[in-house]
Amino acid sequence: MPDFDWNDLRAFLAMARTGRLTVAARQLGVDHSTLSRRISGLEAALGAPLFERRPVGFVLTSEGEQLLPDAEEMEALALRLHGRLSEAEQNLSGSVRVGSPEGFGTYFIAPRLATLAASHPRLEIELVATPRSFSLSKREADLAITMTRPAQGRVYAHKLVDYALGLYASPSYLDKHDAIHQREDLAAHRWIGYVEDLMWTDQLDYLPQVQRGLRPHLRVSNVISQMTAVAGGAGLGVLPHFMGRHHPDLVPVLADKVRLIRSYWRVTHEDTHELARVRRTTEFLDDQVQAAGDDFWLD
């Protein structure tokens, strides 16, 4: 191919995945004019347009769609080569992005990152703690924490931990409302739950498992804000024990009668699974979960 440049292909992949010139340029650490030149250079080398500009952003043409899998294969090869070279370094370096549900990322991973950073000062750690799923094939994360095991894809999945959730309320709420002695008492109380169409996994649909017919009076899109609403006295909520048990303004409700079990899985892509920095980060998470032990359970 005349005048082919690997950086042009990296620009193509970033644009294909984001659809936005400024976002893709930011990911690559270049200005948008440089990125535009690289896309134009690749199109000139191939003799075909790769993107169409539409109101929603840049969309792949049919030629771009044909190029995408080959470009991803070349990217995978480059990552593997880089990984082998990195193994020769005594100290880990480079960037690792960890994608995680917001509760686990904020209340479990984030407080422990100082240990990983101190052990590997040249390692750049990016924690993306947000209520969504992550595409490893699109390089949205190097290591993803999920609530279900992926059913497909070129990925490695390992169960990280089982954890329990229970009912919580604030002391102020319990003081002002009818006593709760059994499940049947729950129907008379106000509930906090998820915004239904914003649930990124059906694993978050807790209330039907607590008791049939329960419906939220207050809907909140993420578990951290739900916990804050529960602590503020807005109602009852279902919270992971690794979050709720440490909050000074929350108390468990019917702990001996209501317990839900969920799991976290750690997932890495086949192309990056053996990179030293990714492997060390997965080992770190495994070690931290094992050390936490009963923190994922109430008793």
UniProtKB/TrEMBL annotation:
InterPro entries: LysR-type_TF_proteobact-type, LysR_HTH_N, LysR_subst-bd, WH-like_DNA-bd_sf, WH_DNA-bd_sf. The keyword Transferase does not apply. Signal peptide: none annotated. Pfam families: HTH_1, LysR_substrate. Belongs to the LysR transcriptional regulatory family. This is LysR family transcriptional regulator. It comes from the Bacteria. Residues 4-61 form the HTH lysR-type domain. The keyword Lyase does not apply. Keywords: DNA-binding, Transcription, Transcription regulation. It comes from Pseudaquabacterium rugosum.
